[in-house]
Specification:
The protein is mostly helical and 661 residues long. It has helices at residues 2-24, 27-39, 43-56, 62-74, 78-85, 98-109, 113-124, 129-145, 149-162, 168-178, 182-189, 200-210, 214-224, 227-236, 240-253, 258-270, 276-287, 292-304, 310-322, 326-336, 343-357, 362-372, 379-392, 396-409, 414-429, 433-446, 460-467, 474-486, 490-503, 508-514, 520-530, 534-545, 565-575, 587-604, 609-618, 620-641. Among the domains are: 34-211, Alpha Horseshoe (Serine Threonine Protein Phosphatase 5, Tetratricopeptide repeat); 360-450, Serine Threonine Protein Phosphatase 5, Tetratricopeptide repeat (Alpha Horseshoe), CATH 1.25.40.10; 460-514; 520-618, Lysozyme.
């Protein structure tokens, strides 16, 4: 009897445990977990959670499938989102077109514009009000991408009729661009408010082109400053001379823009450079978009063709420096040093090259530049580099002299701030606590702006807001900053924080805006998963991208954690994580790979935070080379001065230091 009762209790307990396990792994629990992850800023983890749940369930209901597709959209895995929905028998009847809208967005992201437009139209037919208006706008964008201008114009007209007053000016602009009736288009463009009005000239040209008046469209594009569109249209009509002028003028005038990057491809395919100015313009555009090696070749060709202008020589010096050809760079800068406009820049850059070469003339070159051009923006950097170079050599008396001159001349400059911290650290090592305290107090009093590296492109409305920032009060600036940060405009939010700091420097809210922590739960979760300090991870993200999920560096690093595609792919492979290059800006996946990469660097450099942070930015190989050279220098120091109890101790005997005397 006892054995029978025990067996029954065991079976009952097992049954209860099985039921609990089933409930914990049910699709509903997975959906709740995924939604929690998404709200915490971890869309990639949310999609993976639902994907794993789907693999366990042979039959899934429509709600779970749609939620899974939404999760894949948030994670930017658009092909997976589409595959979940396409062909489902309940697609058109689900929740007033909600599934159709998800499918349309996935198709639009995949470049299937016609299919996306049709599904947006089907979704719009099932709703009313502002939701219908929003779907009509998206339908219009899809038709426009598909080249169906008439359908796009009709969709934009439907959106305006349904009512979207907040973006009506932008919808009018879009509708005018695709309207064939120029009279209607010009009425739509009349009296547009700023900042939409800035795009009116370009939209007028597009309307003329839609109406088939290419001659008038060319003139309108020229007046609107749309050089790339002008060049393409001129090429299509056989006017290569006008196209050439527009292309190379664009690359010379605005080489960093996306239009200039596109102009490079057009020029190489149809209008290759012939003259030195064209080669230099092409080189400037190439350099700003990852083509430094090709840019260097074009500049060398321009030099061989007889271009000896200071601007070309300075560009050549920059490209030679990037390639590690320091002697060639030094010669180029020296040749440009006499120019009345660019001479100061050439002298400064030559001095920096001499530092890299270890040339004995580097000290004289840096100090001479700072003395000759005290008002130049590079003068503080020259003084700092001089002090830093002497400090690296163990000459702290010389370093202190130049750091002191830097602080006296430019007390609020960022380099002066760094110099104060360097001097204070040395004073603490020497036991001079009063001197260190005085330097720290001076840093607080100086109140330097320290706002470098925070300028990235923003939308027109955000640029307009930044332009009005000086007229806003502190509370308004902080409110706008919070709103921008929540919507992904991290750099712009920080810039508004600095504007607020000018008005209320002691307000703790200002500090939280200048040093924000968006995506906090995601950052902390990734840091915990890989065992790294979350404060270190968030500091790296703040420095690298200012929390801009779409940030792109000149070197090609992407996303919050600023990972190069190759580094991201290699890290993902080591974690056995599926990765495609287009996923690199998914916020939590980028953080996931960034935290893993940081942890790997910390392990490689024995837990040294300074070395790992430097390697994260500059690469492991240069940092390893620096540390090896530092170790060799310290060994030479010990050999010369001895290692007994009375001998001075080099700083490299302690963690992360430099030889000190």
């Amino acid at each position: 009897m006892t054995r029978t009762a025990g067996l029954l209790l065991f079976v009952a307990a097992a049954s209860l445990q099985s039921t609990a396990t089933a409930q914990q792994t049910s699709p509903y629990v997975a959906a709740q977990r995924a939604e929690s992850l998404r709200l915490a800023g971890r869309p990639w983890h949310a999609a993976e959670t639902l994907l794993a749940a789907a693999a366990r369930e042979p039959r899934l209901n429509a709600t779970f499938v749609v939620e899974g597709a939404k999760a894949e959209l948030y994670a930017r895995r658009y092909d997976r989102a589409r595959s979940l929905l396409v062909g489902q028998p309940w697609l058109e009847d689900y929740a007033d077109g909600a599934a159709l809208a998800v499918l349309a967005e996935a198709e639009g992201r995949l470049g299937l514009a016609t299919q996306a437009a049709a599904h947006y139209a089907a979704a719009r037919a099932r709703v009313r009000g502002s939701r219908a208006a929003l779907l009509a706008v998206r339908e219009g964008l899809a038709w426009e991408a598909a080249g169906a201008r008439d359908s796009a114009a009709a969709a934009y007209g439907a959106a305006r009729a349904a009512g979207l007053p907040a973006i009506d000016a932008w919808v009018r602009l879009r509708q005018a661009r695709v309207t064939r009736d120029t009279a209607v288009a010009f009425r739509l463009l009349a009296d547009l408010p700023a900042p939409a009005a800035r795009e009116a000239a370009s939209a007028r040209a597009q309307a003329l082109l839609s109406a088939g008046d290419s001659v008038a469209a060319l003139e309108a594009l020229a007046q609107a400053g749309r050089s790339l569109d002008l060049a393409r249209l001129a090429l299509a009509h056989g006017d290569s001379s006008r196209a050439r002028d527009a292309l190379y003028g664009l690359m010379a005038r605005a080489p960093e823009t996306d239009d200039a990057a596109a102009a490079v491809g057009v020029a190489l395919a149809a209008l290759p450079p012939r003259t030195p100015p064209e080669r230099v313009a092409l080189a400037r555009a190439m350099k700003g978009h990852g083509g430094a090696a090709d840019a260097r070749l074009e500049v060398e060709r321009a030099l061989r063709q007889g271009d000896s202008s200071a601007a070309t020589l300075v560009l050549a010096g920059e490209l030679f420096t990037t390639a590690g050809r320091y002697r060639d760079a030094e010669r180029a800068y020296r040749s440009a040093a006499a120019d009345p406009v660019l001479g100061a820049l050439a002298i400064y850059r030559r001095a920096r090259v001499l530092v890299r070469l270890g040339d004995a003339g580097a000290s004289e070159a840096l100090s001479g530049f700072a003395q000759s051009f005290p008002s130049d923006t590079a003068a503080p950097t020259a003084l700092y580099m001089l002090g830093d170079m002497l400090g690296d050599r163990g000459d702290w008396a010389g370093a202190a002299r130049w750091f002191g001159e830097l602080i006296a001349r430019y007390p609020a400059d960022l380099r002066a701030s760094l110099a104060r911290f360097r001097l204070a650290a040395q004073a603490l090592r020497d036991g001079l606590r009063d001197s260190a305290a005085a330097l720290f107090r001076a840093e607080v009093v100086a109140g330097g702006p320290q706002r470098t590296g925070l300028d990235t492109a923003a939308q027109a409305e955000v640029r307009a807001l930044l332009g009005r920032a000086a007229q806003q009060d502190v509370d308004a600036l902080l409110a706008w900053s919070d709103g921008l940060a929540a919507r992904g405009f991290g750099p712009a939010a920080v810039r508004l924080g600095w504007q607020a700091a000018l008005k209320s420097p002691n307000d703790s809210r200002v500090l939280r805006v200048i040093f924000p922590w968006p995506n906090r739960r995601a950052v902390e979760a990734e840091a915990a998963e890989f065992g790294v300090d979350p404060l270190l991870l968030v500091a790296i993200v703040r420095q690298e991208s200012v929390f801009d999920a779409q940030a792109l560096s000149p070197a090609g690093a992407r996303g919050l954690a600023q990972l190069l595609p190759g580094t991201a792919a290699l890290t993902a492979r080591g974690l056995d994580v599926t990765f495609y290059p287009e996923w690199i800006t998914v916020p939590d996946l980028n953080l996931h790979l960034g935290a893993a990469h940081l942890q790997e660097l910390l392990q490689r450099f024995g837990g040294r935070v300074d070395a790992a942070a430097a390697a994260y930015n500059a690469g492991a190989a240069p940092v390893k080379g620096f540390l090896d050279n530092l170790s060799a220098a310290c060994q030479i120091y010990r050999d010369r001065h001895g290692a007994g109890p009375g001998a001075p101790r080099p700083m490299c005997d302690s963690a992360g230091g430099r030889p000190n005397a």
